[in-house]
From TrEMBL:
Residues 11-27 have a biased composition (Low complexity). InterPro entries: HIT4 (IPR039313). One of its GO terms (biological process) is regulation of cellular response to heat. Transmembrane segments: none annotated. Residues 1-46 are annotated as: Disordered. It comes from Triticum turgidum subsp. durum (Durum wheat). PANTHER family: PROTEIN HEAT INTOLERANT 4-RELATED (PTHR33704:SF1). Residues 1-10 have a biased composition (Basic residues). This is Uncharacterized protein. It comes from the Eukaryota.
Amino acid sequence: MARAKGRKRAAAAGGDSQAEAAAANGGRPKRTKTPPKPKPEPEYVHEPRNLEDLWLSAFPIGTEWENIDKIKEFNWNFENLEKALEEGGKLYGKTVYVFGSTEPQLLNVGGESKIVLIPVVVVVDCPFPPSDKIGINSVQRENEEIVPMRVMKMAWVPYVPLEDRLTRIDSLKTKIFTLGCTQRRSALKHLKEERVKKFDYCMPYYMPLSPPEDEDDTVVNIMYPLEPPIVCDFDWEMDDMEDFIDEKVKDEVLPEDEKEKFKTS
């Protein structure tokens, strides 16, 4: 019984000390100080570079249609090209023509062997288009075929840097042109296989570098201000304006309600 009384006295003493602490705190139990929350690390926001998508704007000529999207599987970096075209670079202020291609390579990716399409970008430093022709050739074809770019729906298209994309197209003065292709991939299923394969066998065709002769040239270059702009060639002798415009509308390049404006542009 003596031990029991001792425990009661100890408990009472403990209770008295807790009551005294609460009284000293204005009748409120003492709060435990919460440690400060760690400050979150600032989130990294990628600021697009002015020419960051230049390499993507250049059509990868000679690449199979089903493989074009594979180029985007990796975050390729062409900052060396961007620096060459920006102020202080060796190509700054020059007129250049840019086209793309791909080189398949067997690489080790994540511990597995995989065919990777490595993008290749070629920049031609030239005051006028290096060519308006495309070569079509392969080991299966007996002869190389040389055709105008427009036959394969290709043309040199003005590239608009990021900081200029709110500028009116008709007032933009760019010196960078990329190879563009207006062939809609959704329409490929309606084409003959031979026609589709021609795109796979396309390659750049360089003509002798000489300034264009305007006096006998009936072909004019048209740049119509849309987003993206329509860039094409029109031959006053060979093309009919109505048929030409109807074809652009049919190919969903030109909206129907822009037909009349296009005629007077």
